[in-house]
Amino acid sequence: MLFLKLLLFFSFFSFIFSHDAIFNPHLFPRPLIIQHPEDIETQFRELEEDIKLQCTSWRFSVEANNLSPWKTIPQECLGYVKDYMTGRGYKVDLERVSNEAGVYAKTLQLSGDGKDVWIFDIDETLLSNLPYYIEHGYGLEIFDPIEFDKWVQRGMAPAIEPSLKLYDKILDLGFKIFLLTGRSEQHRSITIENLTKAGFRTWDKLILRDTEHHGKLATVFKSEKRSEMVEAGYRILGNSGDQWSDLLGGAPSIRSFKLPNPMYYIP
Ligand SMILES: [Mg+2]
User: Fold this and answer.
1) Quick one: signal sequence residues (predicted)?
2) Each residue of 96-154: pLDDT tens digit?
3) 243 CA to middle of ligand 1, Å?
4) What is the pLDDT of residues 151-186, one digit of tens each?
5) What is the 3-state secondary structure of 18-46?
6) Which residues surround ligand 1, an ion (CB under 5 A)?
7) What's the CA-to-centroid distance between 121 and ligand 1, angstroms?
């Protein structure tokens, strides 16, 4: 066996170093191009940079509400969204929106009649579902309401810290705080438990979706609820939400603050 292997080895070398083998172009139909490892590294780096640029552009379109309704993040942006959500980027963006909202809130002269309102959304505004989305591809998986409800029922969502800071400031300034969420009425008690555990001290109203509002677009549901507030004599001075459907539509707030969220879209 060893003899056979040696024979094959020497036959191969005698073949490729033979005159005909070297100069006969038919044996090598295309020129051999040796790529240096540095070239491959450069190409790889350029490709990575291009994906990052494309995904940054995609995220900008998400935040500016320029995209058509979308169901999942782009496959190629999984790493990008993961890095953004778990790295410094998301935190810095949250801090900025919270700080800006706080600066604005301080400039307002409240009437003192108890009718000045700040609205907060809950999910990805006060409470973070990032632990759930880490387990579900950062928005790459199609949203599964049954699985998500199981997570909500655990009542383990942590506070979004910059929002908690803003929340305390808004409370101290004397605003009425209305929580307006797309969560179902059946999650009322666990939502209260979760909010309290996460450090949200108190609020004036917690408005969830009752059966009458199931199936309605969030934009419609939230607009209706804001209109009811205005009809009741409240002045909506500030509104914080991670979805444009928290902020757009009827009876809008004087100023709205959009928190970042590149993981999902709610119309
Ligand atoms: Mg939300």
Assistant:
1) 1-18
2) 999 999 999 999 999 999 999 999 999 999 999 999 999 999 999 999 999 999 999 99
3) 6
4) 999 999 999 999 999 999 999 999 999 999 999 999
5) CHHHHHCHHHCCCCCCCCCHHHHHHHHHH
6) 121, 123-124, 242
7) 5
